[in-house]
Design brief:
The protein is of the alpha+beta class. Helix content is 20%, strand content 34%. The strands form 4 sheets. Strands 10, 11, 13, 14, 16 and 17 form a 6-stranded antiparallel sheet that branches. A 5-stranded mixed sheet has the order 2-9-8-4-6.
Length: 320
């Protein structure tokens, strides 16, 4: 079965040069970086697309690296398709076909038709919510059926993820016409998309991606982050901005912000203010010297060494 799936993928790659491109084709080409966006735009202009791009499609492809040139080529293709649909004439009516002779009573015949776009698609596992980098608890299930509603077994379904990883990436449908895969969410907050492709039929499903648990505190002074040892102005109060991030540097809620200074003769913690996203620790220098500051939130501590110099450095920079 693995050889069959690889053969299907190889055939699809060869046809990609001349056939209209699916959304999953664009995602794979952008993620593989085998072609520049300019070359990909030329391919879209030549081959066009199998789908009419929606705002969500454009946003997904921009996340994968699509630029204005590629998006313009997609819009040009959509306009050409719309123009052809508007000017297309209906084909002449075919002469009535002679009905075939009925088969013998004892003969049972089942005609297998192509995959139905209306009856095929994701039937389970979509819409789940998870944190960045997490594997979703329920499998994602794609079901293939023909136009009569009968399940199609042994059909190769390929899966493409945007801000998600799918394993396995290609699988054959079982006797019930279903393909089951696991989904691991990516590193970005917001949404993830999985595209299932079987022949020319493509369906997509979305997931919600939340931040993971806080793993680090980020302290900034003005536009710059501070860590280790830094100096503050001796002649005015200084505000430090505190936020929490998960393991992929996504912002997480800030909980229980506090601050403590080792030697309050050097500087004092004048105020601590926070909301759900960010907090501020205001320091008031009192005399020249060096001491440590502990910033505490989300069950974590970040220790900083802070120096108050005898005189202010030139300029209006609060921290150096």
């Amino acid at each position: 079965m693995t050889h069959v799936l690889l053969l299907v993928a190889l055939i699809a790659t060869q046809q990609q040069r001349t056939a209209p491109l699916r959304k999953s084709d664009l995602v794979r080409l952008l993620s593989a970086a085998e072609m520049s966006t300019g070359e990909l735009a030329q391919l879209v202009r030549r081959n066009c697309l199998t789908f009419d791009p929606t705002s969500r499609d454009r946003n997904d492809l921009q996340l994968m690296g699509a630029d204005r040139t590629l998006l313009a080529a997609m819009e040009e293709c959509a306009r050409r398709k719309a123009s052809r649909r508007a000017t297309a004439r209906p084909p002449p009516a075919a002469p009535p076909a002679t009905p075939p002779a009925p088969p013998p009573v004892f003969q049972v015949q089942r005609i297998v038709v192509n995959v139905s776009a209306e009856r095929s698609g994701f039937v389970s596992g979509g819409g789940q919510r998870g944190s960045v980098g997490a594997q979703l608890p329920r499998a994602l299930v794609f079901e293939a059926r023909d136009s009569a509603g009968a399940p199609l077994s042994g059909q190769a379904v390929t899966f493409t993820g945007i801000n998600a990883t799918i394993r396995p990436a290609a699988v054959a449908t079982d006797a019930a016409g279903q393909a089951h895969v696991g989904v691991t969410l990516g590193q970005r907050l917001g949404s993830a998309t999985v595209i299932g492709s079987i022949g020319v039929v493509e369906k997509q499903v979305a997931f919600n991606v939340a931040a993971g648990p806080a793993t680090q505190l980020v302290v900034t002074c003005g536009p710059s982050s501070v860590a280790g040892h830094f100096a503050i102005r001796p002649d005015s109060a200084v505000a430090l901005r505190v936020s929490a991030q998960d393991g992929f540097a996504n912002p997480t809620p800030l909980l229980g912000l506090r601050a403590a200074v080792a030697d309050a003769r050097v500087f004092r913690v004048l105020a601590v203010v926070q909301d759900s996203a960010v907090g501020t620790v205001t320091l008031k220098p009192d005399q020249a010297g060096t001491t440590s500051l502990a910033v505490i939130a989300n069950g974590m501590r970040q220790y900083l060494t802070v120096t108050v110099p005898p005189r202010a450095a030139p300029g209006k920079v609060d921290c150096r």
